Amino acid sequence: CFNSGSFWDKCDFETNLCKALPEFNLHPGWIRINGQSGVGPPYSDHNGNESAYFLSLSSEMQSSSATLRTNVFLPTDEEHICQIRFHYWVSQMSGMLMVGLQKHSEDTVTNIWQVSGELRNQWNVNNITINSTKKYEV
């Protein structure tokens, strides 16, 4: 995905939030932990690394919702497609993870992908391809 001409090829949480998720867009409820934080499960990242960091919903937030919002991405075209690949873990039967798209010409967020608790307690991976003729956030 392109933002002012730069391309993010990888985003992890080892030193901080990645460039795509600015600090002020980390809504209350999200915490940066690793498998050794004593919060788990999960007790490792998707590669089995116990010291690698990931974002998690704090236990106080599990009955409500919290949002992550990216920076503004430039419109896509045939040369500049946007594909987001992410690893996720859903631990609750009632939990749901949703990915939404908000174009800058619109007030509403369009749900483009979601998963609920049927694949619980394991890391899963998903790829989403985004097409937008306007600037957008995910």
From TrEMBL:
SMART domains: MAM (SM00137)
Chain ranges of the MAM domain: 9-138
InterPro entries associated with the record: ConA-like_dom_sf, MAM_dom
Family annotation (Pfam families): MAM
GO cellular component: membrane
Protein name: MALR1 protein
Organism: Chaetorhynchus papuensis (pygmy drongo)
Gene encoding the protein: Malrd1_3
